[in-house]
Amino acid sequence: MGVMSCDEAAGETCSTSQYQVAYNYRDELAQSSCTALSGRGGWVFAVRRTCSGDAPTCAEICGSSALSEQDYQVSRGGLECFNALHVYTGRPQLSEDTTKDTAKLGLKMYRFDTCNGRHCGPNFCCCRSK
Predict the structure, then answer these.
(1) pLDDT tens for each residue of 97-109
(2) What share of the chain is helix, strand, coil (3-state, %, to 5)?
(3) Are 89 and 32 spatial neighbours (Cβ–Cβ below 8 Å)?
(4) pLDDT in tens, 3-35
(5) Half-sphere CA count of 42, side-chain side, radius 13 A
(6) Measured in Å, how far apart are the chain's first and last C-alpha atoms?
(7) What is d(CA 71, CA 91) in angstroms, rounded to the nearest whole number?
(8) Of 4, 5, 29, 55, which cross-links 50 as Cys (Cβ 3.0–4.6 Å)?
């Protein structure tokens, strides 16, 4: 059985990779967006952030040695934050048939262009190798 990191009971869409690790669509959107935003080569991670005014900033999260130690390829050099995102839930599910639901809004994301927000805004931090 794969490791589940999504909550189907809460309506999250889950998928299982060939490595038996499950992701929800927000993780996949954040990872692909962070990778596209990086602007240079290197390791890129979309790291979940608690949406709270009490939560650490993305700069603090990405700069944490406890985080970079989770991956041997970045543990020595560390990670830095280069952006923050909010991937929204509760968006309309569009039809798989691409001829339907045209001209309708679907998924939604906000890019903060900062790593220092402490408010409930960013729910993903874009971290990359230094």
Answers:
(1) 999 999 999 999 9
(2) 20, 25, 55
(3) no
(4) 445 555 555 656 555 665 656 889 999 999 999
(5) 19
(6) 35
(7) 33
(8) 55
